[in-house]
Amino acid sequence: MTNQQKNDFTSWYIDTIQKADLMDYTPVRGCIAFKPDGYEIWEHIQAEMDRRFKETGHRNAYFPMLIPESFFEKEKDHIEGFSPELPWVTEAAGEKLEERLALRPTSETMVGHLYSDWIKSYRDLPVLINQWANVFRWEKKTLPFIRTSEFLWQEGHTAHVDEEEARAETMQMLNIYKEVVEELLAIPVYDGQKTPSERFAGAVDTYSIEAMMKDGKAVQAGTSHYLGTKFAQAFDIKYLNKENKHEFVHTTSWGTSTRLIGSVIMVHGDEQGLVLPPRVAPTQVVLIPVGPWKKNPEIMERLDKIYAELKAKGIRVRLDDSDQSPGYKFNEWELKGVPVRVELGPRDLENNQAIIKARDEEEKISVDLPTIADCIEGALNTMQTRLLDKARAFREKHSHTHVDSLEQLTQHITDSTENGEIPGWILAGWCGDDACEKQVKEKTKFTTRNIPFNPPATKSTCINCGTEAKYTVWFSRAY
Ligand SMILES: [Zn+2]
Fold it and tell me: Which among 11, 118, 157, 276 is placed 20 to 30 Å from 358, CA to CA?
């Protein structure tokens, strides 16, 4: 944690994304424009997710953005969960519509309506479809990338012959999310099951991956839902089984969104601003001539050569030969979070060396010019791993297992604040009663994140009522 991050994390965050030129506000409340450097981070996430979806047999399709009001009324929990956040289209071409149309918050209802037509027999199953789209949830409090009224995401919608197959799909997709978020974004996550009150509206079970930001708050980084036959019954999605009998399909849905961009910034950023993991950085390496380079044409010749070598390796490289001072350029590219900077001046060239500096490390290192492309590639790979290690160490440091009662939690929060620390997350027992969960939230603003599959410890008593714990749960403040 740095000073500005400590004092006011939100203003640090907004400063960082603005200095890095990732987004802009628009006159539409809660709706942001993704500028190219922000959008490209999403494109790298998309590419990796999409590759893994296709590897596991899924195909992309597209569904309409407008959803008839009557569709929402078919699934009771779904309408209850989403209706407060829905924007509506009520007229078109100067006339009032007979039925209001919602801007989709998610597509289970439209998909359900269509799947009831598309699925007739067990031979049509499984249906494995994903959609890349924008969705709308009219949020009261917004924060760029993390919570916006319109955002980009992917939503998978699958249908299966039975519960076993649908549950296997639900877990498979959660695992893909965990792998992509850890490997590509260098963000460690806890995977687990949501408590009933935190479930997706209309799901039988919701699973999530949860990540810790540098202010200790959690971001739900991806969710995967087993929907049972609830949507199949609401939309009449039946198939003829091998015995020629009608059965309801079992469906799943799963999603990740552009809030992953916000998470990357909040997990890796520092006092200088953005720090991007190499695998998602729009520019991975920047080459900067230093010293009296304009009088030495060999400098630019050599940088052109390095540029070509890096390009040939598939590395996203920029050469900054603008007339700003090197110090100015260093600062600019640091604000943009570029993972590796290369400096080359006349004296370096004489020594047949160049200087490289990783964005997240203090010291610069000299490397031999003949092997520089390999060295840079190595530096990018090392940084990718190092960022995950650092984020993991940070998370371990701020994950607490010693809190077993509400009094202890209140004390823990007070102590942390007094010591200038963040309260982080706590692992605590829970009896399974909604009322206990609610009480913890009201008193401390700590909410249940998930019931982790592999908790670092097991708890025997409920944090609120002290009776026997049925579950061991992560609690924290969350975005
Ligand atoms: Zn309890």
Answer: 11
The conformational region for residue 42 under phi > 0 = left, psi -120 to 50 = alpha, else beta, is alpha
Residue 457: domain span? 399-476
Same domain, yes or no, for 322 and 464?
no
State pTM to two decimals.
0.96
Query: How far away, in angstroms, is 230 Cα from ligand 1 center?
Result: 29
CA of 200 to the centre of ligand 1 (A): 22
Instruction: Name the DSSP class of 163.
Output: H
Give me ligand 1 centre to Cα 474, in Å.
15
Asked if residue 206 belongs to a domain, the reply is yes
Is 297 a domain residue?
yes
Q: How far is the CA of 80 from the centre of ligand 1 (A)?
A: 26
Q: Which residue among 362, 387, 412 closes a domain?
A: 387
193-231: burial string, b at 16+ Cβ within 10 Å, e else: bbbeebbbbbbbbbbbbbbbbbbbbbbbbbbbbbbbbbb
Distance 111 CA to ligand 1 centre (A): 38
Residue located via tokens 């628009």: 26
pLDDT tens across 60-78, in order? 999 999 999 999 888 888 7
- Residue 273 inside a domain? The answer is no
DSSP assignments along 165-182, one per residue? HHHHHHHHHHHHHHHHHH
The predicted-structure confidence for 389-424, as pLDDT tens digits, reads as follows: 999 999 999 999 999 999 999 999 999 999 999 999
- 3-state DSSP percent of the chain in helix, strand and coil, to 5: 40, 30, 30
Q: How far is the CA of 138 from the centre of ligand 1 (A)?
A: 33
* Helix (H/G/I), strand (E/B), else coil: 355: strand
- DSSP SS3 for 59: strand
